[in-house]
């Protein structure tokens, strides 16, 4: 079944992300403040209007007493007319329920039980098909030697109060909206100004050529210094990697040129050989040259593969002791045919390691081949020892040949370098060192009285 290609998701810009992160809390807070302001406006209006009704009721009650129930003073009429929240209606009765002044038919108060008659009473009712807020106040008074209860009822349309609340809410919303709009503009353009050093850094990097891997020296805010330092570190690594790669290509081209030229020369000599005996001789020489060229090419390919090998990718668990035994079994006949004693001292038990089995086998084989090739004419014995202790497995290859000192380590494991010039490529120990390093191990050149001793050490794999 053919899988569809993944859909590319475009990530939002840093400016927009910061804008959203700042704006969302502001909007939430604005909503909370708006809700609180609406409730506060309603409560404030209720309190103010109820106080206006109470003031009007007390003023009317006072006028009823002062005028002996005859009239309401002009100042009281002005108070009623100018009361907040719209028109105020009133109805006043004297002792005995005698009508004094005001509108003839006041709203009817619902019946209440166990209520103090002289306590001001607020309630809501319907007056001429409109909802109204009503206050009824009853006081004990005396008019012309007549003592009794005087009742003043004042009321006001709820719609007028709602309109007042609406005005308060609109003003509060306009204030909050204006502040929020100002904050939005400040945040949007403030974030842009704040991110300007990053955009300038981006512009500076974008105009660089692909060959310019120099350090970034532009001044940036403290928050971006870590990014710049990481980029500079990365540029340095890439630059060193490119330099090493170019040096490797140059050295590889130089090393391949000689075997290729030798093969070409042998082929021409074979073509022009005058006799059959010369032809056979040239053929053998060409085979040897081709083998040398193939060996160098294979070693170069191994080094290139090692560049892309990651220790985190090792998942193979294998018996290193068994591999060393097999390598020695394959190598011993060739060594013995040259009159060289070849010994192996390895435990019969398994020694498990994690890693790339092919590369580790090649590293051990290169270590043994190095002893056989560079031991010199005096080489008489090569021994391989495998030991395991302290969580490490060690493979040591010892010979009694020309010798190798720990002081010559850089030359010995360097690419295309040799301690003593010979027909080798100078890549064997370089491959061993790279493989072991990739496996978190070590390659050691041991101090010995005669010959050479090299040891590779690797961590033992944990049991399953």
Tell me the distance between the termini: 36 Å
Low-pLDDT stretches: none
Shape category = rod-shaped
Label the structural class: alpha+beta
Number of strands: 12
Describe the sheet with the most strands: 5 strands, antiparallel
The domain tally reads 3
Radius of gyration: 51 Å
* Portion in strands: 15-25%
Q: What features would you highlight for this structure?
A:
10 helices, Heat Shock Protein 90, rod-shaped, 18% strand, five-stranded antiparallel beta sheet, five-stranded mixed beta sheet, 3 domains, 464 residues, Beta-Lactamase, alpha+beta, Helix Hairpins
Would you give an account of this structure?
There is one protein chain. This protein has 464 residues and is of the alpha+beta class. It has 3 domains: 16-169, 2-Layer Sandwich (Beta-Lactamase), CATH 3.30.450; 222-306, Orthogonal Bundle (Helix Hairpins), CATH 1.10.287.130; 311-459, Heat Shock Protein 90. 52% of the residues lie in helices and 18% in strands. The protein is built from 10 helices and 12 strands. The protein has helices at 14-66, 74-81, 158-194, 196-206, 222-271, 276-307, 320-337, 357-374, 409-413, 428-438, and strands spanning 88-93, 99-102, 121-127, 130-143, 146-157, 317-319, 341-345, 352-354, 381-389, 392-399, 442-446, 452-459. The model has no long low-confidence stretch (mean pLDDT 77).
């Amino acid at each position: 079944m053919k899988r569809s290609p993944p859909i590319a998701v475009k990530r939002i810009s840093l400016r927009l992300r910061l804008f959203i992160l700042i704006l969302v809390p502001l909007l939430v807070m604005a909503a909370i403040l708006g809700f609180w302001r609406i409730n506060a406006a309603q409560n404030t209006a209720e309190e103010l209007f109820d106080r206006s009704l109470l003031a009007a009721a007390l003023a009317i009650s006072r006028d009823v007493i002062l005028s002996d129930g005859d009239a309401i003073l002009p100042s009281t009429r002005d108070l009623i007319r100018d009361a907040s929240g719209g028109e105020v209606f009133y109805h006043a009765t004297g002792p005995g329920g005698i009508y004094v002044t005001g509108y003839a038919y006041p709203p009817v108060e619902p019946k209440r039980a166990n209520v103090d008659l002289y306590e001001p009473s607020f309630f809501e009712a319907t007056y001429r098909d409109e909802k109204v807020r009503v206050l009824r106040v009853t006081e004990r008074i005396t008019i012309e030697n007549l003592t009794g209860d005087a009742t003043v009822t004042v009321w006001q349309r709820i719609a007028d109060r709602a309109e007042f609340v609406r005005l308060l809410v609109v003003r509060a919303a306009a204030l909050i909206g204006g502040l929020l709009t100002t904050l939005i503009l400040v945040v949007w353009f403030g974030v842009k100004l704040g991110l300007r050093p990053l955009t300038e850094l981006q512009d500076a990097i974008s105009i660089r050529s692909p060959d310019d891997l120099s350090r970034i020296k532009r001044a940036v805010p403290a928050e971006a210094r870590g990014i710049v330092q990481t980029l500079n570190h990365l540029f340095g690594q890439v630059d060193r990697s490119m330099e090493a790669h170019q040096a490797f290509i140059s050295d590889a081209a130089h090393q391949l040129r000689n075997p290729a030229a030798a093969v070409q020369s042998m082929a021409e000599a074979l073509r022009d050989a005058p006799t059959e005996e010369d032809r056979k001789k040239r053929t053998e020489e060409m085979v040897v040259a081709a083998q040398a060229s193939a060996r160098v090419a294979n070693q170069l390919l191994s080094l290139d593969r090692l560049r892309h090998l990651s220790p985190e990718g090792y998942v193979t668990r294998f018996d290193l002791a068994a591999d060393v035994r097999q390598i020695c079994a394959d190598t011993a006949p060739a060594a013995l045919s040259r009159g060289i004693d070849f010994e192996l001292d390895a435990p019969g038990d398994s020694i498990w390691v994690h890693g790339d089995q092919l590369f580790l086998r090649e590293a051990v084989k290169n270590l043994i081949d190095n002893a056989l090739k560079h031991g010199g004419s005096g080489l008489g014995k090569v021994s391989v020892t495998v030991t395991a202790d302290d969580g490490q497995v060690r493979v040591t290859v010892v010979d009694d040949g020309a010798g190798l000192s720990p002081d010559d380590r850089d030359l010995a494991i360097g690419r295309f370098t040799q301690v003593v010039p010979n027909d080798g490529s100078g890549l064997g120990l370089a491959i061993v060192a790279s493989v072991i390093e990739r496996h978190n191990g070590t390659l050691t050149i041991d101090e010995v009285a005669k010959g050479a001793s090299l040891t590779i050490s690797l961590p033992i794999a944990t049991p399953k």
